[in-house]
Structures are given as C-alpha cells and as structure tokens.
Sequence to fold (273 residues):
Amino acid sequence: MSTAERPIGIFDSGVGGLTVMAAIQQALPRERLLYFGDNAHIPYGDRSLREVRAFSAAIVRALLSKGCKQVVIACNTASAAALREVRKAYPHTLFVGMEPALKPAAERSSSRVVGVIATRATFQGTLFASVMARFARDIEVLEQPCPGLVQAIEGGELDTPGTEAMLRGWLEPMLAKGMDQLVLACTHYPYARPLIERICGPDVKVIDPAPAVARQVARLLREHDLESGAGPSTPLAWTSGDPAMFRSMADLLGAPPMEVRAAQWENGELSLP
Ligand code: DGL
Fold:
C-alpha cells in the first residue's frame, strides 16, 4: 500500500471523537478512517494528566502499528495531556490535536466575555495556558469544568431534565456575566449542542472546532502529498468497552455507519485486532 493509501487514526476516551470523525469524513470522503474509543477508561477528564498521557502514548503506538499516516487526537483532554509528547516521540508522524477555540471566540465577541466548557483535566494542561496566553489578552474568559457531562452523554442523556439541570447550573452564571461566545472544548459536548443552545439563547454563539480540525487534517495531508486517491470506505472502530453498547450509542448519536470491534488493554499496551 502506498503511503497515501494508509489510514488516518482517530481516538478519544469514548464516542466524543466521533463528532470529529464525522467532520473529517465529510471533508475527506476518500480517506480510510480507523477510530479507537477508550471506554474502559472513560472519563479521562477526572484522571490525572499523567495517566491520560500513558493511555494516549499506548493508543498512538497501537494506531501506528496499523500503519496510520496521521493521528488525530479527537479528545481535548488527551491533547492537553499528550500532544506535545507524541509529537516529540514521533517527529515524522503527522499529529492533529484539539485545542480550545478561543481565537475565533475572541475575534467574534462583542461583549468581550467568552465562556469555555471542558473537562477539569483540560483546564489544568499547559495547552490551555498557552491558548489563553495567545488569544485571551483583551477578553474575559470564564472557565467552567463540567464533571458528569461526559458520562451523561455516553449514557445517551443528551436532553433529559437531569442534563438540563446540570448545564443550567454551569451556564446561567456565565450568561449573567455577559458571555456572548461559548467554546465547546470537549469533543463529547457537541452532542448536547441543541440543549446548550436552547439554554444560552440566540445571542450566544456556540463554537465547535470539529470542522476547523477537519480542515487542518486536510491541509496537512495536502502539504505532505498524502491525500488518498482511494474510494469511500466504511470506517473501522474499536472500543475497549462493550462493542454492542458502543455501536448503539454511535447510532443514537447519528454517527456515520462503521464496523465496531473489541480492543484489549494488557499490561498498559493496547491491541487492536
Ligand atoms: N471527549 C473528551 C474530551 O474532549 C472527553 C474526556 C473525558 O473522557 O472525560 O475532553
């Protein structure tokens, strides 16, 4: 197989990264996509960055052993924990990670108050500090961790009274402070976007970076002459959790059709059969 025909590897702690995979599939329909959801270890956001870094390093090794030409860390928490390290470890591999979309939020904000919702771990990483230093100089940034939201979404509770109550508890104080842009800095959160938009109302712009990330994936492939010429194919996904549950969640969330297989962790290493 020529280098360009090799697949793109994408991973997340669960089904969240499927929001990014869908954007990549739309932008690059000829690419072969491999996905891994680490449901055995979800949620990443409540773990230490060190632990998430170890998981991410092993996942990258497993995806590279499948011949991936590019790896997309479709998880803000794993990007915060590991993006810099994996780039250093594999200088010849193309990596794309998620970073909170403060730049477009700062550019568009009239009130100069911007909200970011993410996992606790994402706010602790140096990646968030560097995004803040670069783009938040003349805006007020309201940082709001959302513990429990990833689990609610993985459980299919996208728009239940419980999820709404949780989100109102976080978002209403931000709205009271004049927020007019809300950055979704966790790849699970776009699944709750209709509810989030209903709570925030029409004056708040909700920003999901997935389309911009897909454009970055395409740009890198183009620059390195690695775009695939093959036809469209069904993505292949692995989960370290229950494949039947993963598939039914993916269907419920409207993810693209895919083949789902079970993956195993053993002594800190991941195998993708
Ligand atoms: N989708 C992951 C992210 O973007 C969720 C992290 C988690 O598992 O808590 O941060």
Observations:
- The first strand starts at residue 8 and ends at 12.
- The first helix runs from residue 18 to 27.
- The pocket of D-glutamic acid is lined by residues 12-13, 16, 42-45, 75-77, 119, 122, 150, 186-188 (CB under 6 Å).
- The radius of gyration is 18 Å.
